[in-house]
Automatic annotation (TrEMBL):
<dbReference type="InterPro" id="IPR036049">
    <property type="entry name" value="Ribosomal_uL29_sf"/>
</dbReference>
<dbReference type="InterPro" id="IPR001854">
    <property type="entry name" value="Ribosomal_uL29"/>
</dbReference>
<dbReference type="Pfam" id="PF00831">
    <property type="entry name" value="Ribosomal_L29"/>
</dbReference>
<comment type="similarity">
    <text>Belongs to the universal ribosomal protein uL29 family.</text>
</comment>
<dbReference type="InterPro" id="IPR050063">
    <property type="entry name" value="Ribosomal_protein_uL29"/>
</dbReference>
<keyword id="KW-0689">Ribosomal protein</keyword>
<dbReference type="GO" id="GO:0005840">
    <property type="term" value="C:ribosome"/>
</dbReference>
<protein>
    <recommendedName>
        <fullName>Large ribosomal subunit protein uL29</fullName>
    </recommendedName>
</protein>
<keyword id="KW-0687">Ribonucleoprotein</keyword>
């Protein structure tokens, strides 16, 4: 799976972002578990997932801050 583009993340709804964040965190957990047991082959995927999580959380934060300033 390729890295998520920021434009793709911005196009998603709040529910889709929360679902995506949950899926990414599950994947991160599984990758860490595979690394601990020595089964992980693509170490770069851990970094990629971590950055995707940061992208999603950034967009969620931006939206919550913009909603708070307009309210």
């Amino acid at each position: 799976m390729a890295a998520t583009k920021i434009g793709d993340v911005r196009a998603k709804s709040a529910d889709e972002l929360n679902t995506m964040l949950l899926d990414l965190r599950k994947e991160q957990f599984n990758l860490r578990f595979q690394r601990a047991t020595g089964q992980l082959e693509a170490l770069s995927r851990i970094k990629q997932v971590r950055r995707d999580i940061a992208r999603v959380k950034t967009i969620i934060g931006e939206r919550s801050r913009s909603a708070a300033t307009t309210a």
